[in-house]
Design brief:
Strand 6 and strand 7 form a beta hairpin. The relative contact order is 0.14. This protein folds into two domains: about 150 residues, FAD/NAD(P)-binding domain, CATH 3.50.50; about 90 residues, D-Amino Acid Oxidase, Chain A, domain 2. About 35% of the residues lie in helices and about 20% in strands. The chain is α+β, with helices and mostly antiparallel strands. The strands form three sheets. The protein has a five-stranded antiparallel beta sheet with strand order 6-7-8-5-9. It starts with a helix and ends with a helix.
């Protein structure tokens, strides 16, 4: 488990200083490689739209593409002080809580809570919601300060017909935003970058990446549906099936996601 800020530091250190122009708002991207932005207009042989789930690139290059859709739950992320734990995700009746150790001993935690889009909350609400969950979940929440809590509604992007158009390629969440249920959002963006860097043309990039990324979007969606069941009968059946399934079954189910080579 790697903290996202540490990953960004690694990537940032590999980029030449004069290649980054921070604080420049991109307003339009055209398939001929023209980019309209706050600093003027630029043109390039290749434009990579890696600008996230609300991608300006996607909206201007594919104006009729469907908007991201809300998955029905909000994800809260936080970092707790060092504690001896192993990686665990617990499913309840409509809610989930997970935690995993970071290399420096701190604990990455996340709570996934069903609710309406845009629902508010704070660490106190999470403590109340998970107060009767198993140890060390209440203790982890008690150790977290309110100012380190990040809350985001969970969305996914309906399938696009292509990740490329003209001289423009979409990458990461701009192309295939997914729910966080498999922990693959950032991972799939890295895979995109590797394939795009090696591709002989944009068509090859699209053919290599779109089927796989959209498959993982669907798998992540299915996991979220089952994890957030609220029917007592469905939850009981799910929990019984998971208790009876061997640990190797979970590993095998993740092989199509994790066993990837460029």
């Amino acid at each position: 488990m790697l903290h996202r800020a540490d990953l960004l530091d690694v990537l940032r250190s590999a980029v030449p200083e004069d290649a980054l122009h921070a604080g420049i708002e991109v307003r339009e991207v055209h398939t001929d490689g023209t980019v309209v932005h706050a600093g003027g207009v630029s043109s390039a042989d290749l434009v990579v739209g890696a600008d996230g789930i609300r991608s300006i690139t996607r909206r201007t290059v594919f104006p009729h593409a469907p908007a991201p859709r809300y998955a029905g739950y909000r994800t809260w992320r936080m970092i707790a002080p060092p504690r001896q734990v192993r990686s665990v995700e617990t499913w309840g009746k409509g809610d989930r809580f997970g935690y995993a150790p970071l290399p420096d001993g701190r604990v990455y935690c996340y709570a996934v809570v069903r609710g309406p889009e845009g629902a508010s909350g704070d660490i106190h609400a999470l403590r109340r919601r998970f107060a009767d969950w198993h140890d060390p979940i209440p203790a982890l929440l008690d150790s977290v300060a309110d100012d380190v809590l990040l809350g985001h509604d969970s969305y996914e992007l309906p399938d696009l017909p292509s990740f490329v158009s003209g001289r423009v390629a979409l990458l990461g969440d701009a192309a295939h935003a997914m729910t966080p249920n498999l922990g693959q959002g950032g991972c799939q963006a890295l895979e995109d970058a590797v394939v795009l860097g090696a591709a002989g043309d944009l068509g090859a990039y699209d053919r290599a990446r779109r089927p796989r990324a959209q498959m993982i979007v669907r798998r992540s969606r299915r996991v979220g549906v089952v994890a957030h069941w609220t029917s007592p009968v469905a939850v009981a059946a799910r929990n019984t099936a998971m208790r009876l399934a061997p640990g190797s079954a979970l590993i095998r189910s993740m092989e199509p996601v994790l066993n990837w080579t460029p």
